[in-house]
């Protein structure tokens, strides 16, 4: 899941300084689940914006809407009626949702209300941890289900480094576990420790972001109706 | 033989039978008791044991005592008995890992989950007599439940399965283990499900749900905003209010009291809405620590209040316009002290 966190409210005020009629748009999927941008946070941000304007002596209108997902055009279209009279949208979706809205509503400023942090999962209620960096070439089969790309601070493929002590990473021993310690421990449990003697060659980053903006297509996907007709 | 005995302790608990007598006997025979706020420092060198202790009354420099023997109190840790109810009912345990050993709002043997009783060493570190007494209390509790042919649900929360994002927040935070998730056949989708009979309607889940998918009767502040809005937990502040009302209390002008099912129902959205409506000040009145019927509803409210207090200045609202206070139903003077400014 995509993990996001709300921007400091001062930043949202700064971004919306000129706005008169704001829509705070929530997303019902990842950011709802990670407590950053669902219907509840939409109401909270909207309340804060109204109060901030009122206390600054500015007259503004703030409305609220949350859709299923801001990363699908069909859902995004459903926002159109809520945009009547609106001059600024604060989206509490991840960076993908913000861009989808910007593309769909060309004449409106779409402002990000959250910072998109990483791909992760809750480590406990209210705390999330990075688990994947979308490198595009999954090697979890070789590393006992622990990702050295996302979870080793140095993305080492032949670890651990000298900064690993008592199972913790030197970058932040309080919070970060040494991914390589986890890999070794788990490989040992699986009886595969000897496999780690093989040296993994330098990584090919072309499947990651270094290869440029990525696109992926499913060959077996049936095109949507309109596109299907074009290709007939 | 002349033996000197010194006792260092945080608080002397004499709630159990004969303890008070034993304490008095000890005093009479020359045992010295020293309460502390800070654990005394112990140093062992060359078979000599030194205990340094800071007196809480004089706040003076630490006194030092050399002794032949140092006896340390045993610490009771929960055993396997605690493990299975924790897994089975997702039941919360207290700070020591036991089931609500010191919560005065719980009846003896009562757990957070209605109809589940805990006795003996899983509830607290207890003696055989205590366990037996708890077992009778549990039996009495069961017979109350079985006295009626059906268990009547209290006012309880409901989930809108269309809005639920299945984030599982409510499942994880419900102190009464009254929520799980599963299929709603009529909607053909999965969502959080509330066991009506186990829910006591505290509303902690309502305050926490990110999708606003859970409903419970929402506390409604009066149309005309008063200067100060006081949100009263129905188990403490609201009862104090009723006591005062029975004694012909003159409600302070410009103060509006609203009952909430538990302080844990009060979330940031509700507080901000109150400011938006025009209330100048919001006061949340909850139960004392370790005395919340919903175990941590009061601390949940405190977290949200603390979080919001940090954020209010950015909105142009002074942080002191929001406050949380603790009281018991009997502490009417604390409620009477609430003033509009």
Q: Can you offer a commentary on this structure?
A:
- The complex is a heterodimer of chains A (232) and B (341).
- By secondary structure, chain A is α/β, with parallel strands linked by helices.
- Chain A has helices spanning 9-15, 30-33, 39-55, 73-77, 95-104, 148-151, 179-189, 225-231; strands spanning 2-6, 21-27, 61-67, 88-91, 110-112, 114-124, 127-132, 164-165, 168-169.
- Chain A has 2 domains: 2-118, Rossmann fold, CATH 3.40.50.2300; 133-199, no CATH class.
- Chain A has 8 helices and 9 strands.
- A 4-stranded parallel β-sheet of chain A has the order 3-2-4-5, sandwiched between helices. In chain A, strands 1-6-7 form a 3-stranded antiparallel β-sheet.
- In chain A, β4, α5 and β5 (110-112) form a beta-alpha-beta unit.
- Chain B has helices at 19-28, 80-89, 128-146, 169-173, 204-208, 237-246, 268-277, 297-315, 332-336, and strands spanning 6-9, 32-35, 41-45, 48-53, 63-67, 158-159, 179-184, 189-194, 214-215, 228-233, 255-260, 281-286, 322-326.
- The model of chain B has no long low-confidence stretch (mean pLDDT 87).
- Chain B has 4 domains: 6-67, no CATH class; 80-146, no CATH class; 158-215, Alpha-Beta Plaits (2-Layer Sandwich), CATH 3.30.70; 228-336, Rossmann fold (3-Layer(aba) Sandwich).
- Chain B is α/β, with parallel strands linked by helices.
- The A-B interface holds A 8-10, 13, 28-29, 32-35, 38-41, 43-44, 47-48, 50-52, 54-56, 66, 125 and B 163, 165-167, 169, 172-173, 209-212, 267-269, 272-273, 275-276, 311, 314-317.
């Amino acid at each position: 899941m995509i993990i996001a966190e709300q921007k400091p409210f001062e930043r949202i005020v700064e971004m919306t300084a000129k706005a008169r009629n704001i829509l705070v748009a929530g997303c019902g999927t990842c950011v709802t689940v990670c407590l950053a941008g669902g219907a509840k946070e939409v109401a909270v941000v909207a309340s804060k914006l109204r109060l901030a304007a009122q206390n600054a002596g500015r007259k503004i209108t703030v409305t609220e809407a949350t859709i299923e997902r801001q990363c699908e055009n069909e859902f995004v279209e459903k926002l159109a009626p809520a945009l009547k009279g609106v001059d600024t949208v604060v989206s509490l979706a991840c960076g993908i949702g913000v861009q989808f809205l910007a593309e769909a509503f060309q004449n409106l400023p779409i402002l990000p209300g959250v910072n998109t942090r990483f791909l992760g999962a809750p480590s406990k209620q209210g705390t999330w941890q990075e688990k994947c960096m979308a490198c595009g070439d999954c090697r979890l089969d070789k590393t006992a289900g622990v990702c050295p790309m996302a979870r080793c601070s140095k993305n080492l493929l032949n670890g651990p480094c000298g900064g690993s002590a008592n199972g913790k990473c030197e970058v932040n021993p309080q919070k970060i576990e040494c991914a390589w310690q986890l890999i070794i421990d788990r490989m040992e449990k699986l009886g595969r420790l000897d496999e780690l003697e093989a040296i993994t060659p330098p990584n090919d980053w072309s499947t990651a972001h270094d290869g440029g903006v990525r696109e992926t297509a499913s060959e077996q996907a049936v095109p949507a109706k309109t596109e299907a007709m074009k290709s007939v | 033989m002349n033996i000197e005995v010194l006792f260092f302790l945080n608080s002397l608990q004499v709630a159990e039978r004969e303890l008070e007598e034993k304490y008095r006997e000890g005093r009479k025979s020359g045992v010295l008791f020293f309460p502390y706020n800070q654990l005394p420092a112990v140093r062992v060198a060359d078979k000599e044991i030194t205990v340094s202790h800071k007196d809480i009354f004089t706040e003076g420099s630490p006194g030092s005592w050399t002794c032949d023997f140092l006896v340390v109190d045993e610490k009771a840790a929960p055993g396997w008995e605690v493990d299975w109810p924790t897994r089975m009912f997702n039941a919360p345990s207290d700070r020591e890992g036991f089931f609500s050993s010191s919560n005065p709002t719980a009846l003896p043997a009562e757990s957070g989950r209605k109809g589940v009783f805990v006795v003996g060493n899983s509830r607290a570190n207890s003696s055989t007599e205590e366990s037996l007494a708890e077992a009778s209390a549990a039996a009495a509790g069961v017979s109350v439940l079985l006295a009626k042919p059906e268990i009547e649900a209290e006012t309880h929360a409901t989930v809108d399965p269309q809005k639920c994002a299945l984030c599982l927040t409510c499942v994880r935070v419900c102190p009464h283990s009254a929520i799980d998730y599963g299929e709603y056949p009529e909607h053909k989708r999965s969502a959080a499900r509330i066991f009506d009979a186990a829910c006591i309607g505290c509303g902690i889940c309502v305050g926490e749900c990110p999708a606003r998918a859970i409903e419970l009767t929402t506390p409604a502040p009066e149309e005309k905003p008063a200067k100060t809005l006081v949100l009263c937990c129905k188990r403490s502040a609201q009862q104090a209010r009723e006591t005062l009302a029975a004694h012909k209390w003159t409600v302070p002008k410009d103060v509006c009291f609203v009952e909430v099912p538990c302080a844990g129902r009060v979330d940031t959205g509700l507080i901000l809405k109150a400011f938006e409506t025009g209330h100048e000040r919001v006061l949340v009145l909850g139960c004392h620590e370790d005395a919340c019927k919903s175990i941590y509803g009061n601390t949940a409210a405190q977290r949200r209040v603390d979080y919001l207090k940090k954020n209010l200045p950015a909105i142009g609202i002074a942080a002191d316009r929001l406050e949380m206070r603790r009281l018991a139903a009997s502490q009417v003077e604390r409620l009477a002290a609430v003033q509009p400014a």
